Amino acid sequence: MSGAGSSHSNQPVDALLLSDSIFSKAALMNANGESQPLEKLLSASIVGVYFSAEWCPPCRDFIPKLSSFYKEVKSKSGSFEILWISSDNTKDAMFRYARSTSMPWLILEYDHALAQELRDEFEIASIPTLYVVDAVGNKLDHLGRKTVDKAVSENTVWSAFNLWQSNVSSAASPVTKADPKGPGNPFGDNPPGGNPFDAPASSNPFDEGSEEEDPAGSSRKAHPTQPDTDVAGQAKSESPGKAAKEEKKGILQTVSGFVKGKKDKDKVRREVADSIEPVQLAETPSTAASKLKLPGKAKTEQAKSKGATKDAMIEELQVKNENLTGEVEKLREEVDELQIMVQDLRQQVESYEKEKKDLEKQQQALMVKLNLKGWLFKRGVKGVTRNVWRRRWFSMDDHGRLFYFAEDNDVSPKGFIDLNQMTAVQEKSADTQDKNNASFNVVTLNRTFELMAHDRETMQQWITTLDSFFSQKKK
Description:
This protein is α+β, with helices and mostly antiparallel strands. The protein has 13 helices and 16 strands. It has helices at residues 13-20, 39-42, 57-74, 91-100, 113-122, 144-154, 157-168, 229-237, 240-259, 265-275, 285-290, 297-370, 456-474, and strands at 28-29, 35-36, 46-52, 80-86, 106-108, 129-134, 139-141, 211-213, 219-221, 373-379, 389-396, 401-405, 415-418, 422-427, 439-444, 448-452. The strands form three sheets. The chain has a seven-stranded mixed sheet, with helices on both faces. β15 and β16 (448-452) form a beta hairpin. α6 runs antiparallel to α7 and α12 (297-370) packs antiparallel against α13 (456-474). The longest helix has 74 residues, at 297-370.
């Protein structure tokens, strides 16, 4: 059985990499799309498999740190490489991202079948993710992003890389296929401490051909499936509790080799001990071994799944937070623009009000200067006064309204002409003049008023004054 646990150790390194590496079928290229030899990747003892995309904000934030880490390590050691696996939607987007960030590492061909295989193998639930393995594919660090981030921030890049290197020789769980010579080995090739089911007779109570001490002092071969009747009988004569305790103790000693190097040995030991069912005296060693429940893949996968789900939720919240931050910044910019517009409008309103006040002052001054008042005749346009000339007293107020009264001392006017709406003041043509030859028209937006002075001189005074008012209004 000892050959099953050491089948790879006797192979040349190149042959081992080519036969067992998870990257053996990879198609590689650089940021410019140029094909790269597979040996570049297989010659590295440590490989960081990096999953990211152009559209991912956290990816863009992390890549400067990863580039710094990569260049510092590569300047001292050639046994490190990064393989980028893009999650971009198009090939063009992948190369655009690679060129814009000057990616110095290897890139897996876009939409290569190996990309999905590695996502499934490493259970990638979010990006960016840096999964560190050895050249064969044994897992070294599933939190590579956190390691790189901390190493760059604390200037401990080389120490972090050396820690990965120290784990290469003790990597216990190869990602690739199990050893064909040992299909029953739950620990893969050469686990730390050796194969608990392939150990020397002195340490493995389940090994075929192990010798057990007979009470009489003789040695006998104890077959795992057909126990010696004398040995079984002797076992029955011993204390049941003591035998079960000794059985558990032997199993725990066997498993301790596997958990060597783990950070929490006591926890693993407790899990193993709790998973062992009580051993009945009538059972053979092989039956007891079948009841041994080591921490299996299901438990590990469940823990990974929970961790991946938690990481995915954190990444999703980070992306949402960044999106909301961006939206808030845009809203702030829009508010600033609106405030500037409001300020401009206020200035325009203030300017308009000032111009209005100035205009009113000018108009009042003009009214005083013009002092429009006097007797004129006005022709009616409706009712009993239609086409009838009536003598009226005209007087203009400060607001540009020319009131007309029946008498010069009346309080209530008969009406008024709004000179603010006046568009023209003109003398009537000769063929339409009255007997005084002193009639003229005041044209407004709504109506034309026919007026007549006592003589032409008075008419000219009115026309000149009204025309002056009209010209001033246009300015």
